[in-house]
Specification:
The chain has 99 residues and is an all-alpha fold. It contains five helices and no strands.
Length: 99
């Protein structure tokens, strides 16, 4: 079994991806990132008043780079640590039922 398959199996068996996703969402809400992104979207829309209102795809293309840069380093570090713990556990056990 390849390393990638082991990781996927581990995440599936342990609902690991759901837990990582929930962790990131919670941290981003706690630090106010979601509110900042919402404001960036509103600003992009109001700045386009002289033109047509941007489509969702245009809005995403405009706001995504800024949103990514606004993710706090502490959230990135915590996510990296969580992923490292998953990989260490996969290496140690092949795959396990609990982190």
């Amino acid at each position: 079994m390849s390393q990638e398959s082991k990781i996927s199996l581990h995440l599936d068996v342990n609902n690991g991806m759901d837990r990582v996703t929930e962790l990131v969402q919670t941290r981003l809400i706690e630090c106010g990132w979601r509110d900042q992104v919402r404001l960036a979207c509103r600003k992009a829309i109001t700045e386009s008043k002289d033109k047509q209102v941007p489509t969702v795809d245009e809005l995403i293309a405009t706001v995504t780079p800024k949103a990514r840069s606004m993710v706090p380093d502490s959230v990135k570090r915590e996510l990296l640590h969580e992923l490292e713990m998953i990989l260490v556990n996969v290496d140690r056990t092949g795959y396990a039922k609990h982190f």
